[in-house]
Specification:
- By secondary structure, the protein is mainly alpha-helical.
- It is built from twelve helices and two strands, in the order ααααααααααββαα.
- It has a domain of 165 residues.
- Strands 1-2 form a two-stranded antiparallel ribbon.
- β1 and β2 form a beta hairpin.
- The longest helix is centred in the N-terminal third of the chain and has 25 residues.
- It is globular and about 60 Å long.
- The protein starts with 14 loop residues before the first helix and ends in an 8-residue tail after the last helix.
Amino acid sequence: MTTPYNHNGFLDGLINSWILRHREQFEAVFEEAKALNRHCHEFIDGLRVDLGNEKQIVTSVLFARLLELYQGAFIVAERGLTTPLRILFRTFLEAFFHHAAIHIDATYLNEYLNQFHVQRKKLINRLRKSTSPRLDDLRQGIDEALVSAIERTINEEGARRVSVEEVARRAHLHDIYVTVYEILSRAIHTSASDLESHIRFCEKTGKIQGFRYGPSSEETRRVLCLMGMALTEALEQVSNTFGEDRKAMCVSHKDKFQQLLRCENSEEHV
């Protein structure tokens, strides 16, 4: 049996031919993803951020992160790396929750920024509780004055840990959190259920026949279209923050991704 890879795996060799066939098979999806990417870059290339405006600073940086994750997903999707694609999608969604929550809930921006202090305090507490001798130097190097300053800031700001689920609720995206995000979390945490994707079962007996390794197109359409729709929403939101109206263009992109997603997805693996 011929495999779509050689001893170079996903990096070089036979995978290059697979990528060409894959790009041809999903040409409409990849082209629409590239078109959205160009429009996003046109936005950030002309960006003029008011450094006295916290919302503009934070949302522009978050948007840049979303765009980078989106391009990363495009690259791994090209090569048929399904597990890294799911991991990138999950990370992208978390950033998308924060981005949307800041635009929808006026009180969330300050809470989001305060997570920096909460996370620093959490790290210090973990170091202090650890009994590992390998962390002795780090424990001894903790600056108590800094710890006091962090605690004071937390108390003054009323800072508290905000879970991803709460962020999703405040972004009006809880339905995505309890479905897509939760399923994708299995890939992040390498759960036993997620490992099944690497096992080949006999259709008749249900017994293990072997292991699956190599490129697959099974997630290409779904992930790139869903990420594209989310990034389009983020582009429309952040554009409004900068006083720009990109609604018509964003609606066009969303419609195209929805059409592509509705296409009968009966393609065989390349």
